[in-house]
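Quick one - inputs below.
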Amino acid sequence: MNLKESSDVDLDELMVVRMANEIRKGDVLVQGSFTPLGMVACILAKIKLGPELIFCCGATNIDTKAFYPIFLLFSDVIARKASLSFQSLGDYYSSYKTNRIVEFMAPAQIDRFGNLNNSVIGDYKKPKVRLPGGAGIGDNAESVRNKLILYNCRHSVRSFPERVDFVTGAGFLSGGASRWERGIKARGPIRIITDLAVLGFDAETREMMVESLHPGVTINKVKESTGFNLLFKKEINQTELPSETDIHLVREIIDPRAIRKLEFLTGKERLEFLSKLIKMEEELIFKELT
Amino acid sequence: MKKVINIKESSGLVKDGDIVAIGGTWLDRKPMEILRELVRRRKKDLELVIPIGGIDADLLIGARCAKGIHFSYISLDIYGSAQSFRRAIEKDEVEFREYSSLSILLGLQAAAKDLPCLTMKELLGSDIVKYNDHHEIVSHPSSGEKFVCVKKITPDLAILHAQCAGEDGTIVFRSGEWFDLEMAKSAKRVIVSVEEVLSEKQLEDIYDKSLLLRNMVDAIVVAPLGAHPTSCYPYYVADTWHLMEYSLSSRERETFEYYLRKYIYSITRNEEYVEKIGGSEKIRKLKRINEFGLNHESKRIV
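Output:
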């Protein structure tokens, strides 16, 4: 049964359950870099959809079978241990076209037409900020069968500009049919889940469109927080509240120390929370060992 | 096994200006002990090939060992951005070519297959193709279909860290090989550091392994803890505490220099490094956390 009161759910829980609901039987789940919200969503989907869902945790682990509450200190150990086998990235990319991969990605910028930037802020050659780069973002954005689901934990004018400073991964380029005119066959971004709203794209113009607003978020708030004119679906509903079971799974079982909340923090606050998490895990591990 | 060399000899195989591919990915199985030796020996003008990296790229760039880098993603991930890498690009102090994970993989595979390039269907809409001239959009001569053509990357040297070696020089991987196999196949010479050397019987008992044939390997360095502070399954986890320290140190040039002096320049033997990172107590801790992860079955939720 879904919750009736939005005050019973935290924003990160609302987002992560909404992300998990994008996953369907037949998808192949992959998580790469440090994206705890994506990881929690994948585990939740695995619990809900059952054993036939394939998860390749960290891309090089094949068919991760067992899942545990998430940890920072040894996540790679359990991912490898709980997977039937492992592979190289060469192997991974050779089965890339046959699998319907879902890899939740959170690039630094997403623009009006869903183009993705994780490369630079400012001029490419003389950047104001050099970002890490895209890893598989550019590949995922154009791989034929992939389902491109994105998220952003700090919806703002900076993260949602009119035009990205650099297209690391192609969205709908300049809108309309431009993506296909470029020769791209793949479908393009499907959905973006932010801390304010759930967004999609208009079927004709390919402009970003608000599909639902999170509890307490006004149309004005999301407009002010976006660097371009958003489209709004005809009937804007509130984002569906998660069920009590889903919240319990996220909060108590999958991520009891709330590692996912790291993705919402920056600077000193983030560092303090990270240190706290590490301490908590360390105490827990060494208490159990003695 | 004639191929075994020590850590000091390993740096002798690296010449200033070499194109050097570095194995491992994210903060996993990076050949850190060999890289520290390169920094200590003040290697210069290296052209790095690091598809997905973090502290490896950051350390070599920050210590001014590199003139350029081919990459798809460089970050300390949970510990923040790779500050030296970031500063060097922002100040135009290092040349760089940005790829996607697949395109840099194809660059290595092209070299391994002795082809001038390999093609892919992705990146047609990405600016990576516009700014990195190792990519070119081409049309199929008969169908007209568009592809991205990725030029080969031939490293002079691949430096990898694997779990173990057989007595005959076979290299054994026990977790995802990342880009390591492609690096070994494309590079002119290959150095691999390993945690330990095992007998044939011991190797037989490891059921979940993959191999790099011994004829592809030029030199092996036996370096237990050689990936520290990155992880090496199933021996030890990444040293979170050291990575936090690195992340804080690398924020400013001055504190970064201090880090280099403390953990690299002032070290003459590896025992001194181990002592500085926290000694046997720290190693025990990393191994115990690893054990805890390996024996975690009772906590299974699905």
